[in-house]
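General statements about sequence and structure are easier to judge against a single worked case. For one protein, we set the task of working out the structure tokens from the amino acid sequence alone. The sequence in question and its structure tokens are set out directly beneath this paragraph.
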Amino acid sequence: MARLRFIPVLAIFFVALLTLWAAAALYFDLPLTSLRTPAALLYLVFVAGLLFFFKARWRGIVLSIAAFVVVLMGWLSLKPSNDRNWQPDVAETAWAEIHGNQVTIHNFRNCDYRSEFDYTPHWETRAVNLSNLRGIDIFITYWGSPWIAHPIVSFDFGDQGHVALSIETRKEVGRTYSAIRGFFRYYELIYTISDERDVVRVRTNFRHGEDVYLFHTRATPEQARVIFLDYLARANRMRDHPEWYNALTNNCTTNIVPYVADARNTKPKFDYRILLNGKADEMMYERGSLATDNLPLAELKAKVHINPAAQAADNAPDFSRRIRVGRPGFSEVGPKP
């Protein structure tokens, strides 16, 4: 009997969660911006009225869930777009032409930074040959919480340099990143393909309070090829079919997981550290995915912190080489002769 009495309490708690989400969806995503706050407040009052009128019994609960479904259907109908007033660093979308081993990347970003918000974006065309692909490195950036980070995957093409891919929110002019808004349809998704002096250096040299760590992975050239082509296929698809970013389901980490599984010919394996990606280095360390030089994780992480080296290298043409010198897993990278 006690369990049966507890069911209505759980139902009310469930309805409360749905109601808060729906109100937030109206507040962040209602197309008519002037009506967002009134609509969210009206929705909260409406559901509260239903529950009060029916004394939180099943009819009130069912009607509250029905109201949530109406909001959800409207929210799901919102369509992403590539045609907005984008910030300059995400104004173009990268795409690639692939002919055998020859890959030509269009809208390869190479910003010239003077400060975090003062920069000149350059959109270039870069050609790489898949036969030169050696492996994969991964940068992990922290800006506060040890539980949340941003990974950037970089592909080593030897003498042709490194190609860095960063999965990010595509922000409109006037917008900044919000972790809460990332759970709604507030940002489109973008696959940025760029030079490390751009996407890494802006984080080490110009943004304040960001720490960047550079790990060398054990991915083989064959696995790197599969992952690289998966990235490019998604970027090409998004050029014509934009997608919404979602902090839970469609983000900088969840999208990498199926690419890695594809390269290993396995099924994606869930781990809570995929969502709390500040612990992704711990996950990769435990799975043997990183070149560690037999170091404990804490010592490895201390050695792969690159901010001082990146600041010293600044805009040097050999920025990528300089930030790798002496790092675990990069024994073949030496000082400049």
